[in-house]
Every structure is written in structure tokens, then in C-alpha cells.
Amino acid sequence: MNIQNIAGGVCAAKGFTASGVHAGIKAGSAKADLAMILCDTVCSAAAVYTQNKVKGAPIFVTQRNTADGTARGILCNSGNANTCNPDGMEVAQACCELAAKATGLAPGDFVLASTGVIGQALALAPFERGVPELVKKLSKEGGKDAARAIMTTDTSVKEFAVEFDLGGSTCRLGAIGKGSGMINPNMATMLVFLTTDAAIKPTLLQRALSDVASVTLNQICVDGDTSTNDMAAILASGLAGNACIEEPGEGYEAFCDALHNVCTKMSRALAADGEGATKLLECKVTNARTAAIAHAVAKTVIASDLFKAAMFGADANWGRALCAIGYTPGDFSAEHVSLVLKSGAGQVLVCEESAHAPYSEEEASRILAENEIEVLIDMHDGVESGVAWGCDLTYDYVKINGDYRS
Amino acid sequence: MNIQNIAGGVCAAKGFTASGVHAGIKAGSAKADLAMILCDTVCSAAAVYTQNKVKGAPIFVTQRNTADGTARGILCNSGNANTCNPDGMEVAQACCELAAKATGLAPGDFVLASTGVIGQALALAPFERGVPELVKKLSKEGGKDAARAIMTTDTSVKEFAVEFDLGGSTCRLGAIGKGSGMINPNMATMLVFLTTDAAIKPTLLQRALSDVASVTLNQICVDGDTSTNDMAAILASGLAGNACIEEPGEGYEAFCDALHNVCTKMSRALAADGEGATKLLECKVTNARTAAIAHAVAKTVIASDLFKAAMFGADANWGRALCAIGYTPGDFSAEHVSLVLKSGAGQVLVCEESAHAPYSEEEASRILAENEIEVLIDMHDGVESGVAWGCDLTYDYVKINGDYRS
B361: which chain A residues are within 8 Å (Cβ-Cβ)? Predict the structure, then answer.
């Protein structure tokens, strides 16, 4: 399997253009807040959504618009989540109509997403001005502008693309995404938009996205709060020329590998840019009883406030990781756990057989002073593995989320 | 129902004495770290424990020692959790033997508890010196010393006692407790020791403690981390002279009311003194579909890092509470929620029908500037209710836990 990194982000795949503009949704700011991704042709479309019972209006609109397994484009605003608003559905529908009018397509051709403050009415005026401008600016070079326009408190633009082979045809798969960062945070909505020119049937596209998201994007945790507006959506233009993937098999696996590759990079980038974060934490669990337990243990450890705070303090407090392993739901043994802390500065075994292993605190502190930390947990309880990504808990997380509006 | 607050804490009930000393378990500190509670007579005993798969050695020892439904005393150290230590069980047993030798009782007469660092060997020497001193100091006035000796990062002593009537006999029920970090008890260590002179059969005592703890102590959350050493234990001396409670009925209900009263006060005190906390959050959920959902919603809201940080910043960011309600597991509707923020400075309706209610931000900030905040959530989805207690997320939480061991 040969997956190559390439430039171009969400516009790398054949058929896609993108743009981003400042429409005025983020009041009192000149930042970009409206993005569009458009395809020259009808795409297979699939999406996964927040499992929060309180859902933003765009979630319902997107579910309806992609129910037939196809879409042409994506419209996304930042600055307002359009959630818990009595007129949210009407406004969301009106946004799709504005996109349709400006592109000559139908309102039902669009994936719609919003991120920002909950419970404040979303005005249509910025869309009336912004959407036509957005369409005018669509280009193959617009991926980064789109990536920037969906950011809220993010501090870095997140875009990735890869090239891979599908039965002799070169395919591309790219993505933009946003997580959390700083300024007017209300919700750390995670949004990831993916594009590919691989030809793939909508049902298989949905299955690939659901499967890959469950072990990548769903394994990120910044603060344990599941947003009302989370969404990952993928459009597949089919312009790469590969034989359309219509059933599981070699081609489907190759596509999933490329999707997994991009979603893993995106997950790491989203976790590393968690609100206030100074360190990326990658927890790899091996030899667990089941894959589900491996993933759950990994996510529970990197979600523990106590462990996150210890990582901020470069403190090899492995007891907090053991404690988190112990309260992970599921039927498994936590009696033979070993734990290694690893970074660019080296690695150290701090726990063996669920008890203290002799190590140098100085060496451990030196390893934990780096900004990418691997937490390697061997359960000695089976053969399955799983990964999760998080970040440290810092003063800045409290500042960002406590100083809101002051 | 007549429940009166009285002084005396864990020594208020007839038959109980207590003491606390500095035995040297907390290295480099002169703080008290060893406590004993002893009864003149054999007590009915009951306890609830952490549900963490990784359990401290004292948990297993106490389960064994109280398996017959009786005990005579409680020995508890702070500074070291005696958890994840290969020799933990031997050390725990030796602690009970030291207590037996100094009191003339049997090792199996003792409830044993430990709280502190995980994964560091617990030396016996401090117990060899401290336990005899502890026994010498036992007195009716020693409750506060015992309460102080079980503290870790707690900033306040927690003790309560009440007097109540059982069929003409005046009974007393008192408690000491400690909390602070790693607090999401699921029966950090959260430790609560209760004493009463009511006569009650061990099986009913266990049932009362389990039922009351599930709606009081288990509804506290400081940081979502369920400790390996949580324990709430109760000893009933039977010296009050009441007809022994041997079956459910009026007497049992009166006893449960008193237990609920003390455990509620203790829960509030533990939450208010959460690590780094500046505010007590009390979330009351009404009109939920089931009592379990009401309790789960209340606990999820006060456990949300984002909501906790907003409370620290006195920001009426109700969208974060709605978001937390929405990701609470369970089958219920979050479509008609109303939310009131209340404190000594007044109250304000901030959300109605799961949408923004018009309110003054200035008034809300004034209300949230107080140090006890009530979050009143009406689900409009049934008739059941539930309460949970938490605290705000502050810079000091990060500071305390980023630097715990150094």
C-alpha cells in the first residue's frame, strides 16, 4: 500500500474547488467566517454526526440533503452554531437556498454545517452578502481559505491530502478540519470535510467513513464535552477514473487505508490544537481483550483531567493513568498493565504488572518536557489494540473558557 | 420528621471515640496523617466502595473484615493510597494487626482505608509508632483531629452530626469525610466515615447506606476521575436504646432520612472543597422521565469542564449546560428544557423551551459572582427529580494537579 502526502488539501481531488470569506457572522471581527467547497459533478456523499440529543439545525438539514447518498457541495459558517434557536431550521434552509441561487444548483445539493455560539439567533444578512462572493471566489487554490473560514478558537489551519492507487488509477483524498482554540468559545465543534475523486458507491462510502471515524476522529478528546454540531462529511467525485468501488474487497480496503491515513493526521492535528494545549498526547493500547476495550481504555486515559494536568506539569504520575484504566467500562483485567512514556527525548518504563517500575524521575521529566508524548499501555490481557489522541489540561484552557465575554 | 444539627461529628453518637496524629506517612510534612475511630461495643457495619477495577489493598481488607456485618473501629491513613503495590495486602493486614495489638481487639474488627499517592510502597514504621499513640489519644473530643488526619488536598475539615427520634429514643448520627481531587465517586479518594448509636440490623444498615450513597455521595463530581480507594463506611453501636431496626418500615425510613440529611451536607462540603474550587455548584433536575435520568443529567452538567469553567468566569453560558444535558446517556427528550441560575444574589431564567430566554447579562453575572450557585433544570419530560454537586474548574485545579508530587 502506497500513500503519498500531496498539497492541495480539500481541493487536491479532481473536480473540487473551495473558497472562504468574511461575511460578518463573527461580529466585531474581520476574520473569515464562511466557507464553501463545490464539486463540478454529482458526488457520492456520506457523513457522521454528533450523538448529542441536542443537535444544531444544520445537522438535520444535512441528514435530509444527503439521504439519497449524493451531494454537490458544502457550505459552512463559523461564529454561530445555529443551535437551540426557535427559527434555526428556517434559517438553515434559507442558507441552502442562497447557496443554490448563487450556484445554479438545488438547495438539497448542499451539506450544511455551523459552529460557534449556541442559542443566539443566526442572522441571514451575512449569508445574503457572503454566499455570492464565496461562489465568485471558488478556485482550486481556495482550500486554505476554506480551512481558515471554519476556524473558531483554533490556532492553526488544518488541511491534509494524499494520493493513492486504486486498481491502476491514481486517486486523491483531502480534508480540512477545525477543532478548538481561542476567542469566543462556546462549543468546541469538530468539523471535518473530506473530498476524494475515487469512484465509490454511497453505501460503501458511508460504511468507510463510519468505520474509520470510529477509530480516528471519535478517539479525540479535548475536554469530554460532545458538541451539538460535530460533523464529518465526505464527497467523492468519482473523477479519478478508477472502477467504481461497489463492494468490499481490495479496492475498498485501499480506499479505507487512505481515509484512515488522512483522518489519523487530522485527529492528531485537532488534538494538538485543543484549547489551551501545549502537548499532544497519543495513547496506544496493545494486547487488550477486545478492540473496543483497547479504544475505550486509550480514550479514558487521555480524557482524564488528572492525567492531562500531570502531563502539563511533566509529571510521570502513572498512578493516574492506572486509575483511569480501572474506571474504563468493560469486562477486562487491569492487573498486568505495563506503561511506557515516550517522546523525541527517549522513553521510560514507569509501571510493570500494574505496579511501580524503577525509573529516574529526572529522565521521565525530560521525556515529558517535549510537546508530543506517547503513552504506551500494554494490557497483557489479549491481542487487540487501539489509539486515542488528546492534549494536556492547562491554565489557558481555564482562561479561554472562564474569561468568555469578560 | 425532626432532625437537629448537633456538635461532635463522628463522636456524637454514643459509644464512639476518635483521634488523629502525625505518624510520618506524609513525608516532609508535620500534618496529621493517621486517624482512628473506635467504639466501646460491637457495631453493625456497612460500607460502599469504589467501582474502579483497580482497587487499593485496604478495600479488599475492609470487605473481608466487614463480611460478617460487624466491626469495632476504623483505621485510616492519608499520604499514601497503598494501591498498585505488590506488597499492599501484606502491609494492609499488618496495619490491622497493629491496631488490634494496641486496642486488645482482633485484626478483623477494623475498617481500613488509605488515601494519597498511588504506586508508592507504604512503609509500616509510621504505623508502628503512630497506632499506639492514636489509641492513647482516643476521646469523645477527638472527632475533629480524626477529620483533619484523613485530609489530603482538602482545605477544610468536614464533620457533621444530627440528632433524630426513633420510636421515642433519641439517636445520633455523625460523619467525617475528605474529598478534593480524583472525585467522581462510584461507589479520589472520597472517604466518608459515619457513626450512629441507632440499633439497626447489618443488612438494613447496608441497604440504607447503599441507597442513600447512590443519590448523595455518588452524585458528587470534582473532576470525573473515580478513585481507586473510595469508601463510605458506617458503624452503628446500638447504644441509643431504640428498638433495633430489623425490617423496613417507619423506623427504617426515619433512619434513612437522618442518613440522607448527613450525607447531603457531606456531599455539599466535599464538592465545595473540590481541588482549586471557588464555587459550589448544586444542580437540581426536576420533571425528568425517570429518577435515574434526573440524577444522570444533574451529574453530567456539573461534570462538564466547559460549564465548570464558565461558572468560574461567572458567565451565564447556558448553551454549555444544554450541550451536557444532550450528551447524557438515556432515552429522554431535551427539547423543552428550562434553566434557572440562582444564588444568594437572586435568580434568573436563562433558557426556556431549550432556547434563549431574554435576560440581563449584568444580572446573571451578579448572581454568578456568589460562591454557591444553584442550577435549576426543568426537563418538562416527566415527574422525577435528582440533584448533583460539583465545583468550578479553576487555575488552581491545574496548578495543584500539574505539580502534585513535586
Answer: 405
**Residue B313 and residue A402: Cβ atoms within 8 Å?**
yes
pTM for this predicted structure: 0.73
Q: Work out the minimum CA distance from A199 to partner chain B, whole angstroms.
A: 35
Q: Which chain B residue has its CA at the smallest distance from A85's CA?
A: B355
Q: How many Cα atoms are found within 13 Å in the side-chain-facing hemisphere of A23?
A: 31
Buried (b) or exposed (e) across A287-298, using 16+ Cβ within 10 A? bbbbeebbbbbb
Burial A259-273 (b: 16+ CB within 10 A, else e): bbbbbbbbbbbbbbb
Q: What is the mean pLDDT of residues A246-261?
A: 88
Residues of A in contact with B315 (CB under 8 A): 402, 404-406
What does the alpha-carbon distance between residue A201 and residue A208 come to, in Å, rounded to a whole number?
11
Mutate: best of A327, A338, A395, partner B, most B CBs <10 A: A327
Residues of A tagged active-site: 189
Catalytic residue among B17, B103, B152, B189: B189
- How far, in Å, CA of B246 to CA of A280, rounded? 57
Domains and CATH numbers, chain B: 3-272 (3.60.70.12), 280-402 (3.10.20.340)
C-alpha A206, offset from chain centre = 16
Q: Which of B311, B320, B324, B318 is nearest to B338 (CA)?
A: B318
Nearest chain A residue to B226 by CA distance is: A327
Minimum-distance CB partner of A404 among B305, B310, B323: B310
| Measured torsion, CA atoms of residues B234, B240, B242, B243, in degrees rounded to the nearest 10 | 70
* Minimal C-alpha gap between A354 and chain B (Å): 6
Q: What ipTM does the predicted assembly reach?
A: 0.71
- Each residue of B72-114: pLDDT tens digit? 999 999 988 898 888 999 999 999 999 999 999 999 999 899 9
Nearest CA in chain B to A365: B406
> Which residues sit opposite A171 in a β-bridge?
A164
Q: Which residues of A touch B314 (CB under 8 A)?
A: 406
Q: Where are the beta strands (DSSP E) in B231-354?
A: 231-236, 280-288, 338-343, 346-352
Grid cell of A348 as nine digits: 521510560
Q: Name the DSSP class of A243.
A: P
Give pLDDT, residue B158: 82
Contact call for residues A336 and A368 (beta carbons, < 8 A): no
H-type alpha helices, B277-351: 291-303, 305-312, 318-326
Phi and psi, residue B116, nearest 5°: 150, -150
- In degrees and rounded to multiples of 5, residue B121 shows phi and psi of -55, 140
